[in-house]
Amino acid sequence: MTSAPSVVVIGGGPRGTGVIERIAANAGELYGDTRLDIHLVDPYPPGGGRIWRPDQSPLLWMNSMAEDVTMFTDETVELAGPVVAGPALDAWAEDVRAGRVVPDADPAVLAEIHGLAGADFPTRRLQSAYLRWTYDRALAALPPGITVHEHRTTALAVTGPRGGRQYVRLQGRTEPLSADLVVLTVGHLDAEREPEQERLSAFARRHDLVHLPPDFTADSDLDSLRPGEPVIVRGFGLAFIDLMVLLTEGRGGRHENGVYLPSGREPVLYVGSRRGVPYHAKIGYGWTGERPPLPQHLGPTWTDELLSRTGPLDFRRDVWPVVAKELGHAHYHRLFTAHPERTALAHEVFAEKYAAADPGSPELAGIVAEAVPDPADRLDLDALDRPLEGVSHASPEALQEALRAYITDDLTRRHDPQHSEDLAVFLGLLSAYAQLVRLGDIGGWWHGFFSYLASGPPGPRLHQLLALSRAGVVRFLGAGLTVDTDEEQGLYRARSATVPGASTEARALVEARLPDPSLQHTASPLLRSLRDDGAAVTDTGLLSVDPADGRVLDRAGRPHPRRFALGPFTTARSSGAFTRPRTGGPAFRQNDAAARAALTFLRDLSCRGRLAS
Description:
It contains 17 helices and 19 strands. It is α/β, with parallel strands linked by helices. The chain has a 6-stranded mixed sheet with strand order 3-2-1-7-19-18, with helices on one face. The chain has a 5-stranded parallel sheet with strand order 8-17-9-12-13. It has a 3-stranded antiparallel sheet with strand order 4-5-6. The chain is globular, with a radius of gyration of 25 Å.
């Protein structure tokens, strides 16, 4: 009996699970009852993978509400395959409570599920149970001829000719996996090995200091950060929030009635970044009334026209003005329809003038100024992006007071439906992202801006940050943070443009961010082998893939017939492997296209006799 065609999926987290779900959804149409072996490679449990593994601290939350998380397609997703509906996280929890679903979860997580409401921010270990259930459901939906084989190990390399079998070398295994096709869904990359981080680590080794490079916070060696000692933290996003929680509540401290009660085991966190402020809080209210029609200015036609141009794209020149106009359209549509008392023109008149004006033009700014009298009601993306630009304080203490006031104002606004234009901008960001993923590598600024504005921490986390600041456990450093090394004193020294002349010295430095999704300095042997084997890598280090189906491109621009890649390390990076229901889910579209291309290739290969090499 001849062996079945085979595909290796490297990465068993949400993206790999999504690919298997799409294979199950499309197999009936494209593959029939032909046999197929799927080999899933990941050292962590399938479904959640490394980032969403079940053995995490219950203190670590998702930064999305339960009602805003789904692993399933709906009619808003543009895909060639069938929509297969499934529950969002909050609906799944209700199914568990009603006994319709029995998840693979320990008693503590089951208790969390039974208490979960739609507006709650679940723990990551609860999300792991949802992802595991999604994975098991996908396996159950596969036709009888398709079998999944799990390999709890790490893939080290992919080799093989374009026209023949591929070989995946596994850690701890003598013989490689042989496959007709390989799909890489490895998610976030391992810690970087780029020169600046190597230099800082070498400095730490010379002087017996602590340097924690970019990494998933739950995997960092936080025990090396000693109680009471100052720690310079570079990065003010979600990785910082995790760090803050694990080094405070995780060490026995407690929050009570807005006050932090320390355990005495906490270090003192001196935090700064380029912006100098935390990500904006998650919006704390739901949508009511008319939604802005999206996309309006930044839709498929515009994207197609941009892709048809010759020559490289310049994001700031070619893309950003239209993104800004699209976000403005969402903002002002909501302002005029929900808060007309704050406008000075009829909505129809404004909308016609706004649509006709060129993106980024003085004319457009003049139309907005005429129609929206209060500058506070206008969308100022530059001010949102750099709130401390040009701001300075005479002392570190003055900065502490000012930044606490800034965070308090942000929390108030993001929980006030009288500012529901902010939620409209959030929807505009999701719509824009769905189009911009088609453009390939547009640089890292857009992704950072999107996360800063649309993917910030839950409001309760920023309340905790305020309490920690008042308790002196967290100290703000400001914007434009630089970190230098002092060989003579054997210390790290941080300075900020926000408090000129001030500096902070410490024997510990933490890079509070995930590693950049770059193949140039990745510690992943798998992706280094792919790069060294001829895969195309952009100037910013992303793996080049065909935007149509995720096939890996070589340096001549040719799609590899047997290698696919999906995820944040590719030029088709999207905002997440799971998404908010009814928002189009670009990752779902990508998963579907890759699964259909893979099934078609494997079916045709079986029909004509499999090639061997």
